[in-house]
Amino acid sequence: MSGQRVDVKVVMLGKEFVGKTSLVERYVHHRFLLGPYQNTIGAAFVAKAINVEGRVVTLGIWDTAGSERYEAMSRIYYRGAKAAIVCYDVTDSSSFQRVKFWVKELQSCEQHCRIYLCGTKLDLLENDRSKRQVDFHDVRDYAEDELFQNVAEDYVHFTPFQVMTVLLFFLQRKMEWI
User: So what EC number does this one have (predicted)?
Assistant: First the structure.
């Protein structure tokens, strides 16, 4: 099947201002966004073609709005997603609480979607570790909870610039899920 084209829908979810758009911009356009930041309204779409084991894989990345008023609309964007990157800001505990909402949503609507948790804004901790409000161990405990049953190994905490790389690694290991 060398040279076969495969499309993979990836959805970015999380509370507003956790850095979803910045992650996408960094991965797709190799640039880091500087403020002032604006809320995404509805969703933004971008595609990136990559080569995985001789196949051209086009990642269709949906960057969804994080504001609660757009939650109902987000369901439209994650329908049919093969992967979801659910983001939270490590300096904002309320953003991690919203992760739990998105995970439940995905599990009830898209049972075959792979879910990845992504802690963002780790750079803000470089000079002041006391700003951390979401502990890595809490994230791991949540991922290992019965909510995830036997697939907890797929639910890992990633730094912002590792997320897409890990997704690509996953694709290389598990091409059969496409």
Answer: 3.6.5.2
Number of structural domains (the chain) is 1
The 3-state DSSP class for residue 45 equals: strand
Domain holding 94, by residue range, is: 5-177
**pTM of this structure:** 0.77
**Encoded amino acid at 176, one letter:** E
Output 172 or 31, whichever has higher pLDDT: 31
Residue 9 belongs to domain with CATH number: 3.40.50.300
Question: Which residue from 125, 131, 133, 129 is spatially nearest to 159, judged by alpha carbons?
Answer: 125
Q: What is the pLDDT of residues 49-104, one digit of tens each?
A: 887 777 788 888 888 776 665 566 667 778 889 888 999 999 999 999 999 999 99
User: What span, in angstroms and rounded, lies between the C-alpha atoms of 56 and 70?
Assistant: 33
A 10 A CB-CB count for 27 gives 19
Place of tokens 């609309």: 73
Residue with tokens 């073609």: 49
Q: Give one word for 53, left, alpha or beta, with left for phi > 0 and alpha for psi -120 to 50.
A: left
pLDDT tier for residue 116 given thresholds of 50, 70 and 90: confident
Residue 2 neighbours by CB under 8 Å, 6+ apart: 54, 55
